Amino acid sequence: MPRTVFPTRHIHTLKTHNGPVNAVTFSSSGGTYVLTGSSDRAIHLSRAAPNNSNSPTVVETTTPIQKYEAHGYSVLDIAVTADNARFASVGGDRQVFLWDVEQGTTTRRWTGHNSRVEAVQFAGDGDSVVVTGSADTTINIWDTRSSSYKPIQTLTEATDTVSTLHVHMGTYSIASGSYDGHARIYDVRMGTTTVDVLAHPVTSVRCSSDGNALLASTLDGYIRLLDRMDGKLLNAFGGEKGRNEKGHSYRNSELRVRSVFAMGDAVVLSGSEEGTAGAAAFAWDVVKGEVIAAVPVGEKVKAVSCVAWNEGAGDWAAGCSDGAVRVYG
Amino acid sequence: MALKRTRAALEADLQAEQSPYAFYGTPLPPLDEDVRDDGSFVPIWKQEVRDEHGNKRLHGAFTGGFSAGYFNSVGSKEGWTPSTFVSSRQNRAKKAEQKRPEDFMDADDLREQEESRQLQTADEFAGFGSTELDATRRAGLMDILKTGGETMGVKLLKKMGWREGQGIGPKVRRKANLDESSAPGGDAEETYLFAPENPPMVAFIRKNDRKGLGFEGESRLESHNALQPTRDVEESDSFFGGRLAIQGKAQPPKPKEPRRGGLGVGPLNDTGSDDEDPYSLGPQISYNKTIGGDKKKKKKVKPEPTIASANPLLNSKPVFISKKVAAARGAGGFRKCRDGRLPLDGFILADGIMGLSISEKKYDPPVIPEDWKPAKEISSEKRDQSKYVSTADAAKASTLNPTSRAALLGEDQLPGKSIFDYMSPEAREKIVKLTGNANLPPALGEKAPKGYELPESQKRKDLWDLVPKLDKQIAAQALARAVSGWMPYQEDEKKRARYQTFLQVSAGTRSTLPERVEGSSTDEWVMEMQEFSRAAEVFKPMSGVMASRFTSSSTAPKIVSDAPDSAESGLSRPVEKPDDPAVAAAKIGMFGPMTRSTISFYPSRLLCKRFNVKPPENVQLDPGERPGAPSTEPGTRFQSAGFQAETGPKQLVSQDVMNQLLIDSLGYLPTADGLDPSASGPVNAPPPVVVEPERNDALEAERPGDAVFKAIFGSDDEDE
């Protein structure tokens, strides 16, 4: 049942990590669980909503259900398959780990990037492919079905770190954003690459669920909604319009801050860097471009680096630089 | 014996059956018929012991011993005993093979020999570092680099005709000086050219008596008699220590001369240690004991130059120098003053005296009476330190400004006015901010004096001058596109409106000044207008920057002729341009065709399979046969593909007949791409690429209406 008001009630805090949280992903179909990756080199699986969700106060959880520890460096991104059986994680150790959720062990480890890996996504039919973007400016596509240790393909168009990826299987395309200021969409079916110049390092790309629009966050403090057909700007979020009455304003000038669509692509949800009164998560109305919610996460938090929207339960999680993941619903 | 297998059988067995085990490491060399394996078994009696030279060493040494001594030690049958040397005219003895000592040495001897060979500096040149000659060297720096052989100076002199024993300089005409006794006041006889006398060496006579400077006393008489005015002092000349050694040989030593402390040891020189004998004598050779013999020798020596090293023979002879003498020379000798010069004639360095304990009392400073008080008192002690104020501090503490100082001094105010009087308070604030100096005079905001006021029209004109000049044509074109919604600053509507006004003004359709943001200064206004002007320039359609966004058709076939792989990289080049107008467009928020480009993407077949899609056209082609045709430039790509088909091998059957045959068999005409005709429609009719400079469909396309926009992104709830 879609909700009409953007949820801003803080219901759950996951204080399981010791370092800044870099990646938050809800489990597929339902989103009961949340996978969080942190600079403390661990990936934690926790329940997204607290057990007694009707509690008037914020529930705090300090121990995760499962810890996945194999990374030797910070975990930078996580992706979950649709069947929730496996997930992929990448980080500073230049490797791509494919995990078995139940066993808690890695089933595959791909080595092929020459620098830290910034983004990972599942792709293909039945999540048979893992796409990774790295600071070595390449995108590697790995096959989960064969035992080959080489990537299926390496995309080398980017001239700087590929910081973000999003696979939209509806249009058979892989969207990527790079610090070279370009958003590239590789259309596997058409055999074309659409390059959109954004002129500022791209920290997050997302395709709308119908595949007609691309949401791109850049380090000039704007989140732009581009028409995938012709590259025109449909709307821009942030900047002057990002300011609300409490003094929170959307900022993104140096950190990799992720943004996502929420509430059935009606809302743009994004993290933010620290403003005048601590960091906050922001939500904009896609059509009007107005801030509909600025949710402060705490005075001392430097940044909300990643957000995840859970369509199933209508709640969302924000990964904060203080190591906490806050769930709002 | 039937039970025992022969070794050959065993080996054959091993080779026959492949070993099931994996092996690790370097394999043995391949088996050879003649040669045994390195690691194969050899019975002890077949083994040979050889040394590093390949000689057999163990000749039954462990079984009896004779042959070991026989062969190993000498290497010849005769051993050390030399055979009788016989040589006749008919039968010349062969020159015995020259044996080197090394040939008879064993490893230990060789090693010892190696060790004994050390590279080191010859003694004469070991000027630094060696302590051997310390005693003599301490006398002066000049000794440090003294060499024994002929110095270069001597060699040069010899080349110039000088001979040892002569003085240096032009030849002198004088009488022959045959006999010493007749030397002074001889008759004027024949004169000859002689080498000059050696100039006497400057002597540094050690003065350790208390006579006046230059006073020689009876020693002067003595020296006159001896006809050697300087030589007698040289024994104590420590500066030229080497010379002492030479002369010491030629001269009779003066064993006891109570008035001079040079050679004998006086009580002052006594260091109190008993173990060294101050009168110890050197070897016989260094002392001359007969006086008569000396005379003759002296004659020979007499013309000898006083340059110490002139005669290398003399120098290298061993000469005994008693420890005491050497020590005395070192300690009390002529050392240089601190400025590097020698002390004045007749003086010695004070340090030398310090060592003599006797002088300490004599030169004590006068004793100051106990009740003596210096007449001069230090006045600064009485001054009160706390009240001291430096001039700079005093100046700082002063509250006077230039005006008040002028008033104090009775100066008249200058008639002119300050620039601040005309400044507005805001302008003053600006200067305060820029300079960080809050101490500026107040801004009075006065109007310009009468007669200097700018007329209103002039003011307006000045403002107009600030508006950047934009070509009317460009402005009109930009405006025309603005109408169709193709505008920068899509993020900021007000700014877009200002931009539009600016364009209108530039195009001449509007005569008022361009708008400015409320509350912004003139500078900001001008800056914004300049930005607008740049934006309009960038946006100038189909000329300059914009034209570079398109690849002309003439360059396209080149890419096609490349291999598909390289075509991919070649195509991506325009995007990577550093000075990309696309970036400029993106920076001013003008997203759309300017910032959008499309290049080919060649997904691998496996990727397509995993994505469960049919590979795109450019991938379906086998890259080995035909170059891929990216869908971006269908015209040129397909044209070139067709071109290649035409230049293929000349057909036996004409193309038309071939086509007819194919249509008959397949039902349709396969295209150059080998595709379904529906998929490759453009092949048959390649649309001519016409570049219209004034019109661009992509640019002029209508922006999708808000309804479309809402349909995509409006939430379901809004529809309800």
Automatic annotation (TrEMBL), chain A:
One GO location term (cellular component): catalytic step 2 spliceosome
Keywords: Cytoplasm, Repeat, WD repeat
SUPFAM superfamilies for this protein: WD40 repeat-like
InterPro entries: WD40/YVTN_repeat-like_dom_sf, WD40_PAC1, WD40_repeat_CS, WD40_repeat_dom_sf, WD40_rpt, WD_repeat_MORG1
Keyword Nucleus: no
One BP annotation, GO: mRNA splicing, via spliceosome
Keyword set includes Kinase: no
Pfam families in UniProt: WD40
WD repeats: 14-45, 68-109, 110-152
Localization (cell): Cytoplasm
Superkingdom assignment: Eukaryota
Family as reported in the entry's similarity comment: Belongs to the WD repeat MORG1 family.
Name by which UniProt lists this protein: Pc21g16360 protein
Organism: Penicillium rubens (strain ATCC 28089 / DSM 1075 / NRRL 1951 / Wisconsin 54-1255)
TrEMBL record, chain B:
Every G-patch domain range: 149-218
Biased composition (Basic and acidic residues): 94-108
Record's signal peptide: none
GO CC terms of this entry: nucleus
Record-linked Pfam families: DUF1604 (PF07713), G-patch (PF01585), HTH_TGH (PF26093)
Single annotated GO MF: RNA binding
InterPro entries for this protein: DUF1604, G_patch_dom
GO BP: any one term: mRNA processing
PROSITE patterns: G_PATCH
Region called Disordered, residue ranges: 82-108, 170-193, 245-304, 550-579, 616-639, 670-691
Superkingdom of the source species: Eukaryota
This protein's name: Pc13g13600 protein
Native organism taxonomy: Eukaryota, Fungi, Dikarya, Ascomycota, Pezizomycotina
